[in-house]
Amino acid sequence: MTDHIRNFCIIAHVDHGKSTLADRLLQLTGTVSERDMTEQALDSMDLEREKGVTIKASAVRMFYAAKDGQKYELNLIDTPGHVDFGYEVSRALKACEGAILVVDATQGIEAQTLANLYQALDADLEIIPIINKIDLPSARPDEVAEDVGSLLGIPPEAVLQVSAKEGINVEAILEAVVQRIPAPKDEDNAPLRALVFDAHYDSYKGVVAYIRVFEGKLKATDNLRMFSTKTDLRPVEIGIFSPGMKPVDSLGSGEVGYVATGFKTVHECRVGDTMTLSSSPAAEPLPGYFLPKPMVFAGIYPVEADDYTELRDSLEKLQLNDASLTYQPETSQALGFGFRAGFLGLFHMEIIQERIEREYLLDVLFTAPSVEYEVLTNTNEVVKVDSPAELPDPGTIVEVREPWMNIEIITPTEFYGPIMDLVTKRRGIFKQQEHPAPHRVQLDFEIPLSEIIVDFFDHLKSRTKGYASLDYQFLEYRPDKLQKLEILVNGEPVDALAAIVHEKDAYHKGQRLITKLKDLIPRQLYDVAIQAASGGRIISRANVKATRKDVLAKCYGGDITRKKKLLEKQKRGKKRLKMVGNVEIPQDAFMAVLKLEDE
Question: In the structure, how many helices (H) and strands (E) does the chain have?
Answer without folding.
Answer: 14, 32
